[in-house]
Design goal:
With 524 residues, this protein is α/β, with parallel strands linked by helices. The protein is built from 20 helices and 15 strands.
């Protein structure tokens, strides 16, 4: 089998080391053929850097790297264009004036590498030096310049909580990107990637002809793996995984899809998260790989700042204006959650009034992890106490300790600011599920049966807990408990779990008041 390209962002290294490469050069060819200046937003670890590297090797004329790919017999390999590849992940930008110094060094190094003298570089004149670099490269090479910018917005997104540095970085980027409009006649192709479309950086104002292909239906699968690509390029790895997990090929396909396939930028075709998929094949275990690579602290702070209830995330409808550029000094967390990959497009509807998008969590990995992270952030519950609390609650479930579970849930609700609590049954469903998942329980919510839908099923080695949750500000807690247990019995929610000890659990909420009732099922 070919090697898995885990964390490989260089197209050259990937191809030279016989790694799996899902051929995206058809999109590369179409973009170059149809336009000149593009912007693409995708979440982190979604293949943006590899795409940039692919453009670089193509314009450099490295023909051997493209042998066997779609673009191989369609490209003019005799032309080698001058390429400026700027990766902001390699720049310094976390202190005042640091970004400008780092960009000056980048421009100087690029000029020296190409034997070009820039008289303004030692005067600290960034914009004029960058402009002169592009013009002189064009004149020296005889072909217009290709500019590739990876993570164009990283100096902004990484400093959202540091207003002073943020202001400095915005000014520097404004002056820097403004150059691209002035030197347009010297440019062959410009491609920028990032997470968000921030206003005030000159990219979208200065480059008024920039084509944002983020939600363009023609390029919705330019990053990530489609179902067909997954089964074509990774078939041997899927077979290997099915053997390792003692499952059939079809069962593994369904599981991979549930865990990692839910990202869509047109509401029709979904793609697999490439990083998580590759890690799955490498580790042979289903886990939250993508979420673990970076805690979205600034997003959590935004949600708390706007006093969003814990379960506010879910299906929501937004207009296409939500994806336009916005001010980093006054952020709305909903479009930012979309841009960063915590929400994705589930449906797209066009009309004479414009385009409406339905957003939701992409898959199990993101939904479970993000909600657990939110709960931890809101309650400030110490992570080091979680394992011990898991043991305590396990005993309370097994022993049908109603008072113990009530005390635990009451303590949890007491940690949550009152304004963040939503007066709805759905909210308390979310709280119950998120809390137990955070502690490490194997629990699933909203499981459909032929008679109805179970609120939650918690599985342990020796027993299964079937849970029904009720909420009301008018009914008595005891009345709601009896209604919940009767519903479980009447609809026989337990039928699919016969074979081990089954515990029925009713949980009733009224504001921050909670009451629980257990019932052990006689049948096995």
């Amino acid at each position: 089998m070919k090697k898995l390209p885990i964390s490989t962002q260089s197209f050259e290294i990937l191809r030279q080391n016989d790694c799996v490469y899902v051929d995206k050069t058809k999109y590369v060819f179409e973009l170059i053929k149809n336009g000149r200046v593009y912007f693409l937003s995708r979440p982190r670890r979604f293949g943006k850097s590899l795409l940039i590297s692919t453009f670089e090797e193509l314009f450099n004329g490295n023909r051997n790297l493209f042998d066997g790919l779609y673009i191989y017999d369609k490209w003019n390999w005799s032309e080698k264009y001058p390429v400026i590849h700027l990766d902001f992940g390699e720049q310094e930008y976390e202190a005042g004036k640091e970004l400008k110094t780092s960009l000056l060094k980048f421009v100087r190094d690029t000029a020296e590498k190409n034997g070009i003298y820039l008289p303004d570089i030692n005067k600290g004149l960034l914009a004029s030096s960058f402009s002169e670099l592009i013009e002189k490269l064009h004149n020296k090479m005889g072909l217009p310049v290709v500019v590739l910018v990876d993570e164009y917005d990283k100096p902004v997104t990484d400093n959202l909580s540091n207003k002073e540095v943020l202001a400095d970085n915005k000014r520097t980027l404004h002056d820097f990107y403004q150059v691209l409009k002035a030197v347009d006649k010297h440019l062959k192709f410009v491609f920028l990637t990032g997470v968000s479309k921030f206003s005030g950086l000159s990219v979208f104002s200065a480059l008024n002809s920039i084509n944002d292909i983020t939600v363009d239906e023609r390029y919705c699968t330019i990053c990530g793996y489609t179902q067909e690509e997954l089964e074509e390029y990774f078939k041997d790895y899927i077979i290997e995984l099915s053997k390792a997990l003692n499952s059939t090929y079809d069962e593994i396909i369904v599981a991979i899809k549930d865990w990692y396939n839910g990202y869509s930028w047109d509401g029709k075709i979904s793609v697999y998260n490439p990083f998580s998929t590759l890690m799955l094949f490498d580790k042979k275990a289903f886990a939250n790989y993508w979420f673990r690579t970076g805690t979205p602290t600034f997003l959590l702070n935004l949600i708390r700042k706007h006093n969003r209830p814990l379960n506010f995330l879910g299906k929501m409808t937004v207009s296409d204006s939500s994806f336009e550029s916005y001010n980093p000094d006054n952020l709305n967390e909903i479009p930012l959650l979309f841009q960063t990959g915590y929400l994705t497009i589930k449906n797209r509807q066009s009309s004479i009034k414009g385009v409406q998008y339905t957003l939701d969590f992409p898959d199990i990995e993101v939904k479970d992890s993000f909600l657990q992270c939110l709960l931890s952030e809101y309650t400030q519950y110490p992570q080091e106490s979680m394992p011990e609390l898991f043991k305590e609650l396990s005993a309370k479930f097994q022993n049908s300790d109603e008072k113990g579970l009530e005390d635990n849930l009451t303590a949890l609700l007491a940690h949550i600011p009152y304004q963040l609590i939503s007066e709805s049954e759905k909210y308390y469903h979310s709280i119950f599920l998120i809390w137990l998942k955070t502690l490490g329980f194997d629990i699933q919510g909203e499981i459909s049966t032929n008679r109805g839908r179970i609120d939650a099923v918690l599985k342990q080695n020796d027993y299964t807990v079937i849970t029904e949750i009720k909420f009301s500000t008018e009914k008595a807690l005891e009345e709601m408990l009896e209604t919940a247990l009767k519903q479980i019995d009447d609809k026989k929610y337990y039928e699919a779990y016969l074979g081990k000890t089954i515990i029925l659990l009713a949980v009733a909420f009224n504001g921050k008041d909670v009451k629980c009732k257990f019932k052990t099922l006689d049948k096995k």
